[in-house]
Amino acid sequence: MTSKVVAGAVAAVLIVGAAASGQSLGDVAKQEEARRKAVKSTGKVYTNDSLHSEPPPSSVPAAARASASATKEADKPAEKPAAATAPAGDVKDESAWKKRIADARTALDRSQQFAEALQTRINALTTDFTNRDDPAQRAQIGADRDKALAELNRVKKEIEDNTKAIANIQEDARKAGLPAGWVR
């Protein structure tokens, strides 16, 4: 009885396999070629002429407004980062755009390095806190660690703002119709 079941299963597998392999690669290619010929429209083709150009921004970029409000909220002295200010002079001046993006990237890099240093300090303070037995020393180390954590949170926000500033500079350049190489 079991040999009949096994023989039936083998026969079913062979029949299904033969039916599945009935279409060769050449047949599939012919069917695809016929389908492509049947398609009438190739879809929408975008050219430079079909795109609308936008005029350059006339006001202060959003990055400058965001960074100015962030510094006011933090109760720090009003200090605008050089990366968020609009380039002086002609909007089409390549050197001004390159300087603007370079300043923004320098500020981002500086913030990222500072965040890494703070994280290293926090790790060391945490280890020191764990290894101390004296409650007075632990309290002082805990306070230092809390200050470092607060500063790390501030620097992470600064990193986020600098990243947005770079994206805004690139977007402003795109809207002004500038070559992408100017802000890379």
Task: Please tell me about this protein's structure.
- The protein contains 5 helices and no strands.
- The protein has 184 residues and is an all-alpha fold.
- The protein has a domain of 90 residues.
- The longest helix has 41 residues.
- It is flat and about 85 Å long.
- It starts with a helix and ends in a 9-residue tail after the last helix.
Spans of at least 5 consecutive residues with low confidence: 70-84
Secondary structure: number of strands: 0
Helical percentage: 55-70%
What do the pLDDT scores average to? 77
What summary fits the major beta sheet?
none
Structural class: mainly alpha
Provide the gyration radius in Å.
32 Å
Short précis:
This protein has 5 helices and no strands.
Which descriptors apply to this entry?
184 residues, mainly alpha, 0% strand, flat
List the helices and strands and how they pair.
Layout: H1 2-20, H2 25-38, H3 62-73, H4 94-131, H5 135-175
